[in-house]
Amino acid sequence: MSSDQDHLKQTDTEERFDFKKDSKEAFRSEKGLTEETIRAISEDKDEPEWMLERRLRALKQYHEMPMPTDWPGQPDLSEVDVDEIVPYIRPDVDVRGGVDDWTELPDEIKDTFDKLGIPEAEKNALSGVGAQYESEVVYQNMQERWEEKGVVFCNMDEAVQEHEKLVREHFMTTCVPPSDNKFAALHGAVWSGGSFVYVPEDTTVDMPVQAYFRMNSEGMGQFEHTLIIAEEGSEVHYIEGCSAPKYSAFNLHSGGVEVFVNEDAHVQYSTVQNWSKNTYNLNTKRAIVEKNGRMEWISGSMGSKATMLYPSSILKGRGASDNHITIAFAGEGQNIDTGAKVYHNAPNTKSTIESKSISKDGGRTNYRGLVHIADGAHGSSTAVECDALMFDNESTSDTMPYMEINESTVDVAHEATVGKIGDEDVFYLQSRGLDDDDAKQMIVSGFIEPITEELPIEYAVELNRLVELEMEGSLG
Amino acid sequence: MSTQLPASISEETVTEISAERDEPDWLLQTRLDALAALDDLDMPSVIETPGRRWTNLEGLDYESLVDPLDQSDETERVTAEGVEVLDFETAVAEHPALLKEHFGSVVDPQTNYLTALSTALFTTGTVIYVPEGVDAEDVKVRAEMNSRSLFSHTLVVTEDNSSVTILERISNGDGDVDGDRYFSNLVEIVTGENSYVQYGSLQNLDEDVYNFTLKRGDANTYATISWIEGNIGSRLTRSDIETELTGDSSETKIVGAFFGHNDQHLDINARVWHHGEHTTADLVTRGVLDDEARSVYEGVQDVGRDAWDTSSYQRENTLMLSDDSEADASPKLIIHNHDTEASHSATVGQVDKEDLFYMTSRSIPENTARNMLVEGFFVPVLEEVEVDELREDIDDLIVARLD
């Protein structure tokens, strides 16, 4: 790898993520969180009464709940002042709910997504794309052949209108109720945009669908909601990408993801998260998996100032299974607190968790996981493996798994290792002509390979580039 | 603080305990400070996951459990050549300077509510002093508890280039007490350079005793502290075994074995802090649960910013014999220095069906086969025990429980 190529690649990627746009707004809510703000958002979206009621109830719960502050070693959230953020910005786009032709997007928004590489990905590898800018989805498209089979991929606001019965039944009721945690309640009050995916019985969507979330304005919060319903025997892969430019004020991202994996269905949910380093990423993601269903969570957490995110699966039906593959990279000033939660609530359920983390230049990563095996979940098994790679003694890497085992006929294993990058490995590569940086980069690429190989090639490339940039310390 | 101070405790009580033992002012003052701190101190931190606290220490009725002026124990102390093994009162009289220097230096009396309560009220305990160059084996402390509540404080001090193995055994005596009881045990170890301490403990209290124990050692340069912690008895045990690897090239081993049955609750914690360079820690715990017994395990390996060239390993395995039992575990790695090799692993499972089949197919009755497998499960832990008597005692208690 020549240094010229490196340089080109860096500038290319750096520009891809870290640029700002002057954007026009059609509607901007007041800062802070009051009933008036919630009513204004709901009215601007022309929502049915029941959704407004849910929002108001969530707002009430939000005010009643304390901030999470007493977890051992958790990120400092004292700077998170919800009254200082703008919860809702509707960009000035002609078509509410998003256009379905890329060329119809206003130039400044189109440019943004062009730079992020969304259109090429859509042409090449995806079944459908949704793109969210600030609080609203601005582009939404699904290949016709899937629409004909009854597959729905639309933005969440539209789903409230068009698929009211399904949404009313599933939206923040059993999977992620607002009472789950303070930020789930916040999300329930101010949510906007996001994706709705519905896959009918026995339908396999064999190319991934993708949503991309872009936060552009200073001091805003983004609260997109994703609801995926995979009916019996269906299969779908959903990919989510996120980014935001860097501003001096803090941004808040507090999304909600609910996945319903019905009998024999298979859902893969992949995320590559690269929020700018002033963003607090406090997300709630959960799947309910029925009999013999399979849920896979693949996540790469690169950006943000602080992340608290523990995608969770509730294995509700006999034989349900879960796979988690996560990678976290924390550079200077970053605190990535992430992990996985699995509740084995039925017999013969299986889960595997593979977690990798890299910390560098004072970054802090934490694997915080929970495996719960309920009384009666006999024949269940779980294997958790965490590996942490550290570059220096300014950085911190913690592993805090929790295991609650209420059943004897189970197989539970947890393993974690922490180590520095192998001096001998570096020496070996150097002796074959690589310089120190390239050698380390290559070792890191090998370290994260288990996750990159699960991702579609575009995402794998993106993740690798992001890691390379972090290694150079040249991002943000 | 949510727990109210038991009405039976006051400055007068504490002063009376201290005066009876003819204690120096500084010790009385330490007791009174601990008493005064009770209002502001929290219970030992307990693992929590959403919706539940894994051990309920707040729920105990300290008011009825603690009877400070009626403490009674029968403790046998066996010394070895060159080592001073003294009951606490004698040590106060004979080694005032040693006590003043080291008492509370490793276990801060105000660590939490229960350590402060123990410091304010302790009436029994042992001081073990190992002079420079002395190698001693088989120091024994066999304590029997004969009252509703008993508070004990043990201090071990080793000088440079010395070594000692200590066996502590805790059980109930013939004291005629009905109902719930409370036993509190604080142990601190101060080590000289290049000294070696193995401190083995076997707790086999009746199943109406609530048991709190905090043992902590500070390992000097080239020093090794090796802990064995066997927990068989009690209704509820909260046991914290901790080593601070302060000196360069210091080492520690924490070996735990527990066997819970009926509705016993065992909250077992093993923690190591790596401060010096080239330090090594090895944590091994094995436990078996039967009936409705419950175990909570936390293991912490904390590697400090300047702890270069650290090696730290932890393994925890739990065997569950009953569907009504529960095993909770949280092994934690907290790493601040990259020049570290650290790993932890935890497993929970049942008696291996194939092993059982293999043995029954060789005409061993199923029950016998199962018991042999459970006994065998403890072998990797028992192998670490250098004191023969301790190893045999633990094994005997395991066998007794299996019958």
Structural topology:
The complex is a heterodimer of chains A (476) and B (403).
Chain A: H1 3-17, E1 25-28, H2 35-44, H3 49-64, E2 89-91, H4 107-116, H5 118-125, E3 128-133, E4 136-142, H6 144-148, E5 152-155, H7 156-162, H8 164-170, H9 182-190, E6 194-199, E7 209-214, E8 221-222, E9 225-230, E10 235-243, E11 251-253, E12 256-261, E13 266-274, E14 279-282, E15 284-289, E16 294-301, E17 306-309, E18 312-315, E19 321-330, E20 335-338, E21 341-344, E22 350-359, E23 364-373, E24 381-390, E25 396-405, E26 411-420, H10 423-431, H11 436-447, H12 449-452, H13 457-472
Parallel strand pairs in A: 3-7, 6-9, 7-10, 8-11, 9-12, 10-13, 11-14, 12-15, 13-16, 14-17, 15-18, 16-19, 17-20, 18-21, 19-22, 20-23, 21-23, 22-24, 23-25, 24-26
Antiparallel strand pairs in A: 1-2, 3-4, 5-6
Helix pairs in contact in A: 1-13, 2-3, 3-9, 7-8, 10-11, 11-13
Chain B: H1 11-20, H2 25-37, E1 48-49, E2 52-53, H3 62-65, E3 73-78, E4 84-87, H4 88-94, H5 96-102, H6 113-121, E5 124-130, E6 135-145, E7 149-158, E8 163-172, E9 181-190, E10 196-204, E11 209-219, E12 224-231, E13 236-245, E14 251-260, E15 265-274, E16 280-289, E17 294-303, E18 310-320, E19 326-335, E20 340-349, H7 353-361, H8 366-377, H9 379-382, H10 388-402
Parallel strand pairs in B: 5-7, 6-8, 7-9, 8-10, 9-11, 10-12, 11-13, 12-14, 13-15, 14-16, 15-17, 16-18, 17-19, 18-20
Antiparallel strand pairs in B: 1-2, 3-6, 4-5
